[in-house]
Amino acid sequence: MSTGKLILVIALWLLYGVLFLRTMIQKRGPQHLRLLVWTQFFLSCLTFTFTGQDTEIWADAFFDYLPVSVYVKFFCMIQIAHLYHGMIYTIKPLSPARVQGLQHLHRAALVIGAVSFLWMVISGYRPDLSFRYEVNAARDVVVSLYIIVSLLPTTLFLRQHEQIATMRLKHSVSILFCWTYLLVTATSLISLIVVRFKLADIDLLLPWFLPLTYVLYALFLIALMPHRWIVVLLIPGRLRTYWRLCQLQRAIARFTYVQAPDVNHPWKSTSLFELELAIYQVTISILDHIPLLEKRAEAISFYPALAQLSQADLTYPALVKELVAVRFE
Amino acid sequence: MSATQMPDEAVDVKRVITSLEYDFHKFELTNFVDHIARWVRKPIELVPFPFTAQIFGVWVPAPNQNYIFYNERVPYVHRVHIILHELAHILLNHPRHKLEDVLPPELLQALRIEETYGRTRTAPTEATRLDRAEQESEEFVLIVQRSVVKANLLSELTQESSSIAAFKPVTDSMGYNS
Prior knowledge:
- The structure holds two protein chains of two kinds.
- Chain A is an all-alpha fold.
- Chain A contains 13 helices and no strands.
- In chain A, helix 10 (about 235-255) runs parallel beside helix 11 (about 270-290).
- By secondary structure, chain B is an alpha+beta fold.
- Helices cover about 45% and strands about 15% of the residues of chain B.
- Chain B has helices spanning about 15-20, 30-40, 75-90, 105-110, 125-130, 130-160, 170-175; strands at about 45-50, 55-60, 65-70, 95-100, 115-120.
- Chain B has a five-stranded mixed beta sheet with strand order 1-3-2-5-4, covered by helices on one side.
- In chain B, strand 2 (about 55-60) and strand 3 form a beta hairpin.
- In chain B, helix 2 runs parallel beside helix 3 (about 75-90).
- Chain B is globular, with a radius of gyration of 19 Å.
- The termini of chain B are far apart.
- Chains A and B meet through helix 1, helix 2, helix 7, helix 11 and helix 12 of A and helix 3, helix 6 and helix 7 of B.
Protein backbone atom coordinates (compact mmCIF):
# COMPACT_ATOMS: atom_id res chain seq x y z
CA MET A 1 0.00 0.00 0.00
CA SER A 2 1.39 3.42 -0.95
CA THR A 3 2.09 5.99 1.79
CA GLY A 4 -0.52 8.37 0.38
CA LYS A 5 -3.18 5.69 0.40
CA LEU A 6 -2.18 4.62 3.92
CA ILE A 7 -2.56 8.21 5.19
CA LEU A 8 -5.95 8.46 3.48
CA VAL A 9 -7.10 5.18 5.03
CA ILE A 10 -5.99 6.20 8.52
CA ALA A 11 -7.65 9.63 8.11
CA LEU A 12 -10.88 8.01 6.99
CA TRP A 13 -10.97 5.57 9.92
CA LEU A 14 -10.22 8.40 12.33
CA LEU A 15 -12.93 10.61 10.86
CA TYR A 16 -15.52 7.83 10.93
CA GLY A 17 -14.41 6.91 14.44
CA VAL A 18 -14.84 10.47 15.73
CA LEU A 19 -18.24 10.92 14.05
CA PHE A 20 -19.36 7.52 15.37
CA LEU A 21 -18.31 8.41 18.94
CA ARG A 22 -20.10 11.77 18.72
CA THR A 23 -23.30 10.08 17.58
CA MET A 24 -23.04 7.50 20.34
CA ILE A 25 -22.32 10.07 23.05
CA GLN A 26 -25.15 12.32 21.89
CA LYS A 27 -27.42 9.26 21.65
CA ARG A 28 -29.03 10.51 18.46
CA GLY A 29 -31.75 8.30 16.99
CA PRO A 30 -32.87 4.85 18.14
CA GLN A 31 -29.98 2.65 19.26
CA HIS A 32 -30.68 -0.23 16.86
CA LEU A 33 -30.74 2.20 13.91
CA ARG A 34 -27.54 3.87 15.12
CA LEU A 35 -25.74 0.52 15.11
CA LEU A 36 -27.22 -0.41 11.75
CA VAL A 37 -26.21 2.88 10.14
CA TRP A 38 -22.71 2.82 11.55
CA THR A 39 -22.22 -0.81 10.56
CA GLN A 40 -22.73 0.40 6.99
CA PHE A 41 -20.28 3.26 7.42
CA PHE A 42 -17.60 1.01 8.84
CA LEU A 43 -18.19 -1.58 6.11
CA SER A 44 -17.61 1.25 3.63
CA CYS A 45 -14.37 2.09 5.44
CA LEU A 46 -13.29 -1.52 5.15
CA THR A 47 -14.12 -1.49 1.45
CA PHE A 48 -12.06 1.65 0.92
CA THR A 49 -9.14 0.14 2.83
CA PHE A 50 -8.97 -2.73 0.35
CA THR A 51 -9.48 -0.65 -2.79
CA GLY A 52 -6.76 -0.62 -5.48
CA GLN A 53 -4.91 -3.47 -7.12
CA ASP A 54 -1.66 -2.77 -5.21
CA THR A 55 -3.51 -2.90 -1.90
CA GLU A 56 -5.24 -6.13 -2.87
CA ILE A 57 -1.92 -7.84 -3.68
CA TRP A 58 -0.34 -6.44 -0.50
CA ALA A 59 -3.23 -7.63 1.67
CA ASP A 60 -3.65 -11.00 -0.04
CA ALA A 61 0.04 -11.77 0.54
CA PHE A 62 -0.82 -12.12 4.26
CA PHE A 63 -3.22 -14.95 3.34
CA ASP A 64 -0.95 -16.87 0.99
CA TYR A 65 -2.49 -15.03 -2.00
CA LEU A 66 -6.00 -16.18 -1.26
CA PRO A 67 -8.16 -13.38 -2.87
CA VAL A 68 -9.33 -12.12 0.52
CA SER A 69 -9.55 -8.44 -0.49
CA VAL A 70 -11.94 -8.88 -3.39
CA TYR A 71 -14.15 -11.07 -1.22
CA VAL A 72 -14.09 -8.56 1.66
CA LYS A 73 -15.25 -5.86 -0.77
CA PHE A 74 -17.78 -8.23 -2.32
CA PHE A 75 -19.44 -8.99 1.02
CA CYS A 76 -19.12 -5.47 2.45
CA MET A 77 -20.64 -3.65 -0.49
CA ILE A 78 -23.53 -6.06 -0.99
CA GLN A 79 -24.21 -5.88 2.72
CA ILE A 80 -24.16 -2.04 2.70
CA ALA A 81 -26.66 -1.96 -0.17
CA HIS A 82 -28.86 -4.55 1.53
CA LEU A 83 -28.84 -2.84 4.95
CA TYR A 84 -29.54 0.60 3.49
CA HIS A 85 -32.35 -0.80 1.36
CA GLY A 86 -33.76 -2.43 4.52
CA MET A 87 -33.81 0.94 6.28
CA ILE A 88 -35.45 3.01 3.57
CA TYR A 89 -37.67 0.82 1.40
CA THR A 90 -40.69 1.36 3.66
CA ILE A 91 -40.53 5.15 3.21
CA LYS A 92 -41.67 4.82 -0.38
CA PRO A 93 -43.03 1.29 -0.19
CA LEU A 94 -41.75 -1.06 -2.89
CA SER A 95 -43.95 -3.78 -4.30
CA PRO A 96 -43.67 -7.07 -2.33
CA ALA A 97 -42.39 -8.78 -5.48
CA ARG A 98 -39.45 -6.35 -5.70
CA VAL A 99 -38.65 -6.67 -1.99
CA GLN A 100 -38.74 -10.45 -2.28
CA GLY A 101 -36.67 -10.34 -5.46
CA LEU A 102 -33.94 -8.35 -3.68
CA GLN A 103 -34.04 -10.74 -0.73
CA HIS A 104 -33.46 -13.69 -3.06
CA LEU A 105 -30.67 -11.79 -4.81
CA HIS A 106 -29.03 -11.02 -1.46
CA ARG A 107 -29.17 -14.63 -0.27
CA ALA A 108 -27.92 -15.97 -3.60
CA ALA A 109 -25.00 -13.52 -3.67
CA LEU A 110 -23.93 -14.32 -0.11
CA VAL A 111 -24.24 -18.08 -0.58
CA ILE A 112 -22.34 -18.12 -3.89
CA GLY A 113 -19.68 -15.83 -2.45
CA ALA A 114 -19.26 -17.85 0.74
CA VAL A 115 -19.24 -21.26 -1.02
CA SER A 116 -16.69 -20.18 -3.66
CA PHE A 117 -14.43 -18.63 -1.02
CA LEU A 118 -14.60 -21.71 1.23
CA TRP A 119 -13.90 -23.93 -1.73
CA MET A 120 -10.72 -21.96 -2.43
CA VAL A 121 -9.68 -22.15 1.22
CA ILE A 122 -10.24 -25.91 1.36
CA SER A 123 -8.89 -26.82 -2.07
CA GLY A 124 -5.93 -24.46 -2.00
CA TYR A 125 -6.88 -23.21 -5.49
CA ARG A 126 -5.50 -19.79 -6.34
CA PRO A 127 -7.24 -18.05 -9.27
CA ASP A 128 -5.40 -15.85 -11.75
CA LEU A 129 -5.67 -12.06 -11.77
CA SER A 130 -8.72 -12.07 -14.07
CA PHE A 131 -10.73 -13.58 -11.22
CA ARG A 132 -10.86 -10.25 -9.39
CA TYR A 133 -12.62 -8.71 -12.39
CA GLU A 134 -15.24 -11.46 -12.27
CA VAL A 135 -15.91 -10.95 -8.55
CA ASN A 136 -15.96 -7.15 -8.87
CA ALA A 137 -18.33 -7.29 -11.85
CA ALA A 138 -20.67 -9.69 -10.01
CA ARG A 139 -20.60 -7.46 -6.93
CA ASP A 140 -21.27 -4.28 -8.90
CA VAL A 141 -24.15 -5.88 -10.80
CA VAL A 142 -25.77 -6.95 -7.51
CA VAL A 143 -25.32 -3.48 -5.96
CA SER A 144 -26.59 -1.84 -9.15
CA LEU A 145 -29.74 -3.95 -9.00
CA TYR A 146 -30.31 -2.65 -5.46
CA ILE A 147 -29.75 0.89 -6.76
CA ILE A 148 -32.12 0.55 -9.71
CA VAL A 149 -34.90 -1.30 -7.89
CA SER A 150 -34.81 0.39 -4.48
CA LEU A 151 -32.15 2.96 -3.56
CA LEU A 152 -32.41 5.38 -6.49
CA PRO A 153 -36.26 5.57 -6.63
CA THR A 154 -36.46 6.05 -2.85
CA THR A 155 -33.74 8.72 -2.84
CA LEU A 156 -35.44 10.58 -5.70
CA PHE A 157 -38.65 10.49 -3.66
CA LEU A 158 -36.85 11.79 -0.56
CA ARG A 159 -35.15 14.54 -2.58
CA GLN A 160 -38.54 15.65 -3.91
CA HIS A 161 -40.21 15.82 -0.50
CA GLU A 162 -37.37 17.03 1.73
CA GLN A 163 -37.79 20.56 3.12
CA ILE A 164 -34.42 20.90 4.88
CA ALA A 165 -32.00 22.41 2.41
CA THR A 166 -28.90 20.61 3.67
CA MET A 167 -30.66 17.26 3.63
CA ARG A 168 -31.94 17.95 0.13
CA LEU A 169 -28.37 18.63 -0.88
CA LYS A 170 -27.34 15.28 0.59
CA HIS A 171 -30.07 13.51 -1.32
CA SER A 172 -28.75 15.16 -4.48
CA VAL A 173 -25.29 13.86 -3.61
CA SER A 174 -26.79 10.38 -3.01
CA ILE A 175 -28.49 10.49 -6.40
CA LEU A 176 -25.20 11.45 -8.01
CA PHE A 177 -23.59 8.59 -6.06
CA CYS A 178 -26.15 6.14 -7.47
CA TRP A 179 -25.56 7.25 -11.05
CA THR A 180 -21.78 7.17 -10.56
CA TYR A 181 -22.08 3.66 -9.18
CA LEU A 182 -23.98 2.57 -12.27
CA LEU A 183 -21.10 3.97 -14.35
CA VAL A 184 -18.60 2.10 -12.18
CA THR A 185 -20.59 -1.08 -12.84
CA ALA A 186 -20.32 -0.43 -16.57
CA THR A 187 -16.54 -0.03 -16.22
CA SER A 188 -16.38 -3.27 -14.18
CA LEU A 189 -18.20 -5.14 -16.92
CA ILE A 190 -16.00 -3.59 -19.63
CA SER A 191 -12.89 -4.53 -17.64
CA LEU A 192 -14.14 -8.10 -17.28
CA ILE A 193 -14.81 -8.42 -21.02
CA VAL A 194 -11.44 -6.86 -21.89
CA VAL A 195 -9.57 -9.21 -19.53
CA ARG A 196 -11.59 -12.35 -20.29
CA PHE A 197 -11.33 -11.98 -24.07
CA LYS A 198 -7.87 -10.36 -23.99
CA LEU A 199 -9.09 -7.43 -26.10
CA ALA A 200 -6.54 -4.94 -24.76
CA ASP A 201 -4.11 -4.30 -21.95
CA ILE A 202 -6.32 -3.62 -18.92
CA ASP A 203 -3.59 -1.48 -17.31
CA LEU A 204 -4.17 1.07 -20.05
CA LEU A 205 -7.86 1.31 -19.15
CA LEU A 206 -7.58 1.39 -15.38
CA PRO A 207 -6.30 5.00 -15.12
CA TRP A 208 -9.57 6.00 -16.83
CA PHE A 209 -11.77 3.80 -14.69
CA LEU A 210 -10.24 4.15 -11.21
CA PRO A 211 -10.96 7.89 -10.70
CA LEU A 212 -14.66 7.05 -10.83
CA THR A 213 -14.20 4.86 -7.76
CA TYR A 214 -12.58 7.74 -5.90
CA VAL A 215 -15.43 10.05 -6.96
CA LEU A 216 -17.74 7.47 -5.37
CA TYR A 217 -15.84 7.61 -2.08
CA ALA A 218 -15.85 11.42 -2.12
CA LEU A 219 -19.62 11.48 -2.67
CA PHE A 220 -20.09 8.92 0.09
CA LEU A 221 -18.01 11.05 2.44
CA ILE A 222 -20.03 14.20 1.65
CA ALA A 223 -23.22 12.27 2.39
CA LEU A 224 -21.82 11.49 5.84
CA MET A 225 -20.94 15.06 6.81
CA PRO A 226 -23.02 16.71 9.56
CA HIS A 227 -25.32 19.40 8.19
CA ARG A 228 -23.44 22.35 9.59
CA TRP A 229 -20.27 21.25 7.80
CA ILE A 230 -21.89 21.48 4.40
CA VAL A 231 -24.04 24.54 4.96
CA VAL A 232 -21.42 26.61 3.18
CA LEU A 233 -22.31 24.79 -0.04
CA LEU A 234 -25.75 26.41 0.05
CA ILE A 235 -24.44 29.98 0.07
CA PRO A 236 -24.04 30.43 -3.73
CA GLY A 237 -27.62 29.30 -4.34
CA ARG A 238 -29.01 31.54 -1.59
CA LEU A 239 -26.94 34.49 -2.86
CA ARG A 240 -28.47 33.99 -6.28
CA THR A 241 -31.94 33.96 -4.70
CA TYR A 242 -31.16 37.16 -2.83
CA TRP A 243 -29.73 38.88 -5.90
CA ARG A 244 -32.77 37.92 -7.97
CA LEU A 245 -35.18 39.18 -5.28
CA CYS A 246 -33.26 42.47 -5.08
CA GLN A 247 -33.67 42.88 -8.84
CA LEU A 248 -37.42 42.29 -8.50
CA GLN A 249 -37.58 44.75 -5.60
CA ARG A 250 -35.81 47.38 -7.72
CA ALA A 251 -38.16 46.76 -10.63
CA ILE A 252 -41.14 47.27 -8.32
CA ALA A 253 -39.63 50.42 -6.81
CA ARG A 254 -39.15 51.82 -10.33
CA PHE A 255 -42.89 51.68 -10.97
CA THR A 256 -44.21 52.51 -7.50
CA TYR A 257 -41.86 55.46 -6.89
CA VAL A 258 -41.62 54.30 -3.27
CA GLN A 259 -38.15 53.77 -1.99
CA ALA A 260 -37.50 50.21 -0.81
CA PRO A 261 -36.45 49.90 2.85
CA ASP A 262 -32.78 49.62 3.65
CA VAL A 263 -31.51 46.10 3.89
CA ASN A 264 -28.24 45.01 5.47
CA HIS A 265 -26.65 43.53 2.39
CA PRO A 266 -25.36 40.08 3.28
CA TRP A 267 -22.17 40.33 1.25
CA LYS A 268 -20.88 42.52 4.03
CA SER A 269 -20.98 39.37 6.13
CA THR A 270 -20.03 35.76 5.46
CA SER A 271 -22.82 34.45 7.64
CA LEU A 272 -25.65 32.42 6.13
CA PHE A 273 -27.82 33.79 8.90
CA GLU A 274 -27.42 37.37 7.61
CA LEU A 275 -28.17 36.14 4.12
CA GLU A 276 -31.38 34.40 5.24
CA LEU A 277 -32.45 37.51 7.09
CA ALA A 278 -31.80 39.69 4.04
CA ILE A 279 -33.83 37.30 1.85
CA TYR A 280 -36.66 37.52 4.35
CA GLN A 281 -36.54 41.34 4.43
CA VAL A 282 -36.58 41.68 0.65
CA THR A 283 -39.43 39.17 0.40
CA ILE A 284 -41.56 41.16 2.86
CA SER A 285 -40.69 44.41 1.09
CA ILE A 286 -41.83 42.91 -2.24
CA LEU A 287 -45.08 41.63 -0.70
CA ASP A 288 -45.69 45.06 0.87
CA HIS A 289 -45.24 46.89 -2.43
CA ILE A 290 -47.15 44.58 -4.80
CA PRO A 291 -50.57 46.29 -4.26
CA LEU A 292 -49.03 49.59 -5.37
CA LEU A 293 -48.41 48.15 -8.83
CA GLU A 294 -52.10 47.58 -9.49
CA LYS A 295 -52.72 50.86 -11.27
CA ARG A 296 -49.35 51.05 -13.00
CA ALA A 297 -49.84 50.24 -16.67
CA GLU A 298 -46.06 49.83 -17.08
CA ALA A 299 -46.09 46.87 -14.69
CA ILE A 300 -48.85 45.00 -16.51
CA SER A 301 -46.37 42.37 -17.72
CA PHE A 302 -45.58 41.09 -14.25
CA TYR A 303 -48.22 42.50 -11.90
CA PRO A 304 -50.76 39.63 -12.40
CA ALA A 305 -48.17 37.01 -11.43
CA LEU A 306 -47.11 39.00 -8.37
CA ALA A 307 -50.70 39.77 -7.35
CA GLN A 308 -51.48 36.07 -7.45
CA LEU A 309 -48.46 35.26 -5.27
CA SER A 310 -49.29 38.01 -2.78
CA GLN A 311 -52.63 36.32 -2.12
CA ALA A 312 -51.48 32.71 -2.37
CA ASP A 313 -51.45 30.26 0.51
CA LEU A 314 -47.80 29.26 0.08
CA THR A 315 -45.12 28.24 2.53
CA TYR A 316 -42.22 30.66 2.85
CA PRO A 317 -39.71 28.56 0.85
CA ALA A 318 -42.32 27.99 -1.89
CA LEU A 319 -43.17 31.69 -1.99
CA VAL A 320 -39.52 32.72 -2.31
CA LYS A 321 -39.04 30.15 -5.06
CA GLU A 322 -42.06 31.49 -6.97
CA LEU A 323 -40.95 35.11 -6.54
CA VAL A 324 -37.52 34.25 -7.88
CA ALA A 325 -39.17 32.70 -10.93
CA VAL A 326 -41.25 35.82 -11.78
CA ARG A 327 -40.08 37.39 -15.05
CA PHE A 328 -40.01 41.16 -14.95
CA GLU A 329 -37.38 42.21 -17.47
CA MET B 1 -60.40 55.67 23.10
CA SER B 2 -59.36 58.76 21.23
CA ALA B 3 -56.55 60.00 19.02
CA THR B 4 -53.15 60.25 20.74
CA GLN B 5 -49.86 62.01 20.03
CA MET B 6 -46.45 60.51 19.34
CA PRO B 7 -43.99 61.27 22.18
CA ASP B 8 -41.04 63.45 21.23
CA GLU B 9 -38.38 60.96 22.23
CA ALA B 10 -37.58 57.94 20.07
CA VAL B 11 -37.99 54.54 21.71
CA ASP B 12 -35.07 52.15 22.11
CA VAL B 13 -36.88 49.22 20.46
CA LYS B 14 -34.09 46.77 21.15
CA ARG B 15 -34.23 47.51 24.85
CA VAL B 16 -37.99 47.07 24.90
CA ILE B 17 -37.63 43.62 23.29
CA THR B 18 -34.88 42.62 25.70
CA SER B 19 -37.07 43.68 28.60
CA LEU B 20 -39.75 41.25 27.40
CA GLU B 21 -37.47 38.36 28.51
CA TYR B 22 -38.90 36.17 25.78
CA ASP B 23 -37.10 32.99 24.71
CA PHE B 24 -37.05 33.20 20.92
CA HIS B 25 -35.89 29.59 20.62
CA LYS B 26 -39.46 28.70 21.60
CA PHE B 27 -41.01 31.29 19.32
CA GLU B 28 -44.49 30.53 18.13
CA LEU B 29 -46.81 33.32 17.06
CA THR B 30 -49.74 32.68 19.41
CA ASN B 31 -47.35 32.09 22.27
CA PHE B 32 -45.62 35.41 21.53
CA VAL B 33 -48.98 37.21 21.26
CA ASP B 34 -49.97 35.80 24.68
CA HIS B 35 -46.63 36.95 26.09
CA ILE B 36 -47.20 40.51 24.85
CA ALA B 37 -50.81 40.42 26.12
CA ARG B 38 -49.55 39.47 29.58
CA TRP B 39 -46.95 42.22 29.34
CA VAL B 40 -49.47 44.96 28.48
CA ARG B 41 -52.05 43.37 30.81
CA LYS B 42 -54.77 43.35 28.21
CA PRO B 43 -55.92 40.41 26.07
CA ILE B 44 -55.10 40.51 22.36
CA GLU B 45 -57.39 38.91 19.83
CA LEU B 46 -56.24 38.11 16.30
CA VAL B 47 -59.07 38.45 13.80
CA PRO B 48 -58.68 37.34 10.15
CA PHE B 49 -60.48 39.71 7.80
CA PRO B 50 -60.88 39.83 4.00
CA PHE B 51 -59.37 43.30 3.51
CA THR B 52 -58.62 44.63 0.05
CA ALA B 53 -55.06 44.01 -1.18
CA GLN B 54 -53.98 47.54 -0.09
CA ILE B 55 -54.77 47.00 3.61
CA PHE B 56 -52.60 44.52 5.48
CA GLY B 57 -53.63 44.88 9.11
CA VAL B 58 -55.37 47.04 11.68
CA TRP B 59 -54.88 47.47 15.40
CA VAL B 60 -57.98 48.56 17.29
CA PRO B 61 -57.63 49.06 21.05
CA ALA B 62 -61.01 48.52 22.73
CA PRO B 63 -61.38 49.31 26.46
CA ASN B 64 -60.85 45.71 27.63
CA GLN B 65 -59.23 44.13 24.62
CA ASN B 66 -56.76 44.79 21.83
CA TYR B 67 -57.89 43.63 18.40
CA ILE B 68 -55.51 42.90 15.56
CA PHE B 69 -57.34 42.46 12.27
CA TYR B 70 -55.13 40.99 9.59
CA ASN B 71 -55.63 40.41 5.89
CA GLU B 72 -56.52 36.72 5.71
CA ARG B 73 -55.64 36.50 2.01
CA VAL B 74 -51.91 37.14 2.27
CA PRO B 75 -49.28 34.36 2.52
CA TYR B 76 -48.48 33.08 5.99
CA VAL B 77 -45.07 34.76 6.24
CA HIS B 78 -46.61 38.14 5.39
CA ARG B 79 -49.42 37.55 7.87
CA VAL B 80 -46.91 36.92 10.66
CA HIS B 81 -45.05 40.09 9.72
CA ILE B 82 -48.27 42.12 9.77
CA ILE B 83 -49.30 40.75 13.17
CA LEU B 84 -45.84 41.42 14.64
CA HIS B 85 -46.01 44.96 13.27
CA GLU B 86 -49.35 45.56 15.00
CA LEU B 87 -48.05 43.97 18.20
CA ALA B 88 -45.25 46.54 18.14
CA HIS B 89 -47.82 49.35 18.02
CA ILE B 90 -49.50 47.84 21.10
CA LEU B 91 -46.29 47.27 22.99
CA LEU B 92 -44.77 50.64 22.14
CA ASN B 93 -48.08 52.36 22.86
CA HIS B 94 -48.05 54.20 19.57
CA PRO B 95 -50.51 57.04 18.91
CA ARG B 96 -53.89 56.06 17.48
CA HIS B 97 -55.71 57.77 14.65
CA LYS B 98 -59.38 57.79 13.78
CA LEU B 99 -60.03 54.93 11.38
CA GLU B 100 -62.47 55.73 8.61
CA ASP B 101 -64.20 53.02 6.59
CA VAL B 102 -61.58 50.42 7.31
CA LEU B 103 -63.84 47.97 9.15
CA PRO B 104 -67.56 47.42 8.56
CA PRO B 105 -69.82 49.04 11.22
CA GLU B 106 -71.67 45.77 11.88
CA LEU B 107 -68.39 44.06 12.80
CA LEU B 108 -67.45 46.91 15.13
CA GLN B 109 -70.90 46.73 16.65
CA ALA B 110 -70.57 43.00 17.20
CA LEU B 111 -67.27 43.59 18.95
CA ARG B 112 -68.82 46.46 20.93
CA ILE B 113 -66.34 48.99 19.63
CA GLU B 114 -68.04 52.34 19.61
CA GLU B 115 -65.35 54.63 18.22
CA THR B 116 -62.61 53.23 16.02
CA TYR B 117 -59.24 54.61 16.82
CA GLY B 118 -56.15 52.65 16.02
CA ARG B 119 -53.54 52.10 13.35
CA THR B 120 -53.65 50.62 9.89
CA ARG B 121 -50.81 48.92 8.07
CA THR B 122 -51.19 49.51 4.36
CA ALA B 123 -49.01 49.20 1.28
CA PRO B 124 -46.17 51.66 1.94
CA THR B 125 -46.18 55.27 0.79
CA GLU B 126 -43.66 58.07 1.28
CA ALA B 127 -45.76 59.18 4.27
CA THR B 128 -45.39 55.82 6.03
CA ARG B 129 -41.66 55.95 5.38
CA LEU B 130 -41.49 59.18 7.35
CA ASP B 131 -43.85 58.08 10.13
CA ARG B 132 -41.73 57.34 13.21
CA ALA B 133 -44.27 54.97 14.75
CA GLU B 134 -44.31 52.92 11.55
CA GLN B 135 -40.52 52.88 11.46
CA GLU B 136 -40.33 51.77 15.10
CA SER B 137 -42.82 48.98 14.43
CA GLU B 138 -40.82 47.79 11.44
CA GLU B 139 -37.66 47.92 13.53
CA PHE B 140 -39.42 45.83 16.17
CA VAL B 141 -40.43 43.23 13.59
CA LEU B 142 -36.93 43.13 12.19
CA ILE B 143 -35.36 42.55 15.60
CA VAL B 144 -37.92 39.88 16.45
CA GLN B 145 -37.41 38.20 13.08
CA ARG B 146 -33.64 38.41 13.48
CA SER B 147 -33.97 36.50 16.74
CA VAL B 148 -36.42 34.03 15.26
CA VAL B 149 -34.44 33.44 12.08
CA LYS B 150 -31.33 32.90 14.15
CA ALA B 151 -33.08 30.37 16.35
CA ASN B 152 -34.91 28.73 13.46
CA LEU B 153 -31.93 28.61 11.22
CA LEU B 154 -29.89 26.86 13.85
CA SER B 155 -32.74 24.48 14.41
CA GLU B 156 -33.17 23.85 10.71
CA LEU B 157 -29.53 23.46 9.92
CA THR B 158 -28.15 21.78 12.96
CA GLN B 159 -30.93 20.24 14.99
CA GLU B 160 -33.45 18.95 12.49
CA SER B 161 -31.86 16.35 10.26
CA SER B 162 -34.80 15.69 7.94
CA SER B 163 -38.32 16.99 7.43
CA ILE B 164 -39.53 13.52 6.43
CA ALA B 165 -40.77 11.87 9.62
CA ALA B 166 -40.13 8.32 8.40
CA PHE B 167 -36.56 9.16 7.38
CA LYS B 168 -35.62 11.32 10.37
CA PRO B 169 -34.64 8.43 12.72
CA VAL B 170 -32.21 7.25 10.02
CA THR B 171 -30.58 10.67 9.58
CA ASP B 172 -30.51 11.26 13.33
CA SER B 173 -28.65 7.97 13.72
CA MET B 174 -26.15 9.13 11.12
CA GLY B 175 -25.32 12.11 13.34
CA TYR B 176 -26.25 14.63 10.62
CA ASN B 177 -27.63 17.04 13.19
CA SER B 178 -24.67 16.93 15.56
